[in-house]
Amino acid sequence: MSRASRRSRRLAGAGLVLALTAPGALAQGFEPGGTPGSFDFYVLALSWSPTYCDGPGARREAEGQCRPGRGLGFVVHGLWPQYNRGYPSNCSSVVRAPTRQAIEVAGQVYPSEGLARHEWRSHGTCSGLDPVAYFQAARDARAAVTIPDAFKGLERDTRMAPIEVARQFVAANRGLRPDMMSVTCRAGQLQEVRICFAKDLRGFTPCPEVARQNCRTGEVAIDAAR
């Protein structure tokens, strides 16, 4: 079956496909607004770029994240403040625009400037940090996670059980346990790995509500980076 045919089947099965899922979309408790700095822990969301670029992202990021030849695998989707139940979003009515310095820091971890600016508005404003510090926090969280070898330089499409994806991350990251993360999917494809960090980012932390968002399909398709 051609790649185009496989893509059509996935999208047809998905119905109306959204670009990327918000952190609490599979759980109740979303709270628009919130007090900056008042939350319980962070979620670092690592998006599998080929899945994003197999949907609407291909058009949205044709010259950025999804440009042919970039060869991106896991990329930072966001660093999300979370409550033990639910999560805040858009925590400031007057949003301070990121400075050029902040965008330079964001460029070290986010695949596009547009995504970085969106994440600051939606989630960074809830962190209690200024834009530079928030993007530095995202950079530090990403640096604390080792991507398993199985997902580095993936040259051919493959399939894997979500629980095996989790096992690979647990094995590669000391102190990480299955109850501190989730593996999500979209239309039978690997979507994200979401890893929970303590509020001070000094280590991983249990997050039952996030862990319950695990993909429950038998296997997911993992397209190679292109």
Summarize the structure.
29% of the residues lie in helices and 20% in strands. The protein has 226 residues and is an alpha+beta fold.
**C-alpha termini separation:** 18 Å
Average pLDDT, all residues: 86
The number of helical elements comes to 8
Number of domains: 1
Please identify which CATH superfamily we are dealing with: Ribonuclease T2-like
**Low-confidence parts:** 1-28
Order of helices and strands: HEEHHEEHHHEHEEHE
Radius of gyration: 17 Å
* CATH topology type: Ribonuclease Rh, Chain A
**Architecture per CATH nomenclature, i.e. the level-2 architecture:** Alpha-Beta Complex
Give the percentage of residues in beta strands: 15-25%
Per the principal axes of the C-alpha atoms, what is the gross shape? Answer: globular
- Report the structural category: alpha+beta
**Largest sheet descriptor:** 4 strands, antiparallel
Strand order within the widest sheet?
Answer: 3-2-7-6
Text of the CATH class: Alpha Beta
**Percent of residues in helical segments?**
25-40%
Tell how many strands the DSSP assignment holds.
8
